[in-house]
Amino acid sequence: MEVLAQDLPPRVRIHEVGARDGLQNEKTVVPTEVKAEFVHRLAAAGLTTIEATSFVHPKWVPQLADAEQLFPQLEDVQGAGVALPVLVPNERGLDRAVALGARRIAVFGSATETFARRNLNRTVDESLAMFEPVVARAKDDKVHVRGYLSMCFGDPWEGPVPVHQVVRVAKALMDLGCDELSLGDTIGVATPGHVQALLAQLNEEGVPTSAIGVHFHDTYGQALANTLAALQHGVTTVDASAGGLGGCPYAKSATGNLATEDLVWMLHGLGIETGVDLGLLTATSVWMAERLGRPSPSRTVRALSHKE
Ligand code: HMG
Ligand code: MG
To answer: Tens of pLDDT along 53-66?
Structure first.
């Protein structure tokens, strides 16, 4: 039964990360053709923002070393109006992405020093300095820029992360000129009160809710509760990964991202529009799970694909 909830947005934009955040952690390299079909299927299921790949150093993320081969195979998807953001850490990455016609990029910072060092080989401030010319050049070219911020709630090496520490880096990313910010609970330790406290402090410091997306991992089973808390605060952009694929190669305790199917089930139940066909999406995750050789961890995928 669909119950229209009060004080919630009528529509949510899902930022699908399965093809990038989901696959980047897979040990076995997925063939480029399978990745291309994955993105086509996600688009056919109604997703309108599909993060496609990363233009990072291939030694750091071997799974996405085929970005140059993959991106041109998605030209029809981008041509049909689907946004295909790609991760870009530095100017070298930006050069590679724009050469292929990417119109949306994402830089990815960290709220903690340890993760910045492990993920980008830089301190937090050195990472911001690395992003500065990337964002400036992207803005000159009218390329949309997302700023990811990882470890917004807790960090596997540093423990709980204070709100003021997150707000400082979030503001710095916005000051560089990012169009939107994605708050990452990279290891899935957030709880709803913490989510609302961070959002309130960001607003207090001048970062509007309209510029904020949320990126939850389901390690402690809190991803949907945290999402609902963010929606109640007014957030309308939610990151999720088809079938719950993914972790993070540089944060070992990170388990899967919030599964897109679990998110869609909750949103549709609340009467919130997503434009996503849950049947097609579930079929896509079942198909991808077969390619990866293990079942999807998503409860919704399991429930909807259960055969007598
Ligand atoms: P570095 O070793 O410090 O690089 O790595 P460098 O700047 O010293 O350059 C060394 C060599 O790499 C040079 O080549 C560069 O040209 C080359 P050489 O001159 O020696 O022949 N190089 C590149 N090649 C291709 N593409 C590039 C590139 N950049 C340099 N873009 C670097 C620094 C940032 C490159 C590296 O640390 C890196 O690639 N890191 C990416 C790690 C990554 O992708 N992690 C996962 C994504 S973040 C995440 O998952 C969190 C998120 O999902 C949200 C959440 O859940 O919290 C977003
Ligand atoms: Mg993630």
So the answer is: 999 999 999 999 99
